[in-house]
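Practice problem: predict the structure.
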Amino acid sequence: MLIIRKQQIQEFIARDETELTDVVRQAIRAANGDRVKDHNDVELNSMLKIGIDRARSRGLTFAEDIASFVAIMFEVAPRFDEQPDIRKVLEDPKFSPDIRMEQLFTCVDDAAWVEAGGLYQDSFWFPGKAASD
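Answer:
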């Protein structure tokens, strides 16, 4: 019987940072096309790097978890993870990092997601530009 470990599956999804960025970019363009339509791939890649780094700072390592985290950053708010109920799940040591993303959707109520949506700021994605405006 062939057994494929989750880590091996991750390598099929994205073997390196470039492939991870490509996968996430394609997912974001498909899911959040209206929000990113005015950004070319160079700009979007810069935004994705910020998102990927933020996902990793939350202990996420699997490509699909990183992609989900970044997608939520675009859909809800770039700083959605600062909302207290969401942050609590993402930092909860009883959940291993590889299941924290799925726990968000079972442990966080709708009111918290609405509150997180209020954290949306376009300037988050371009910190250097915001400082010069």
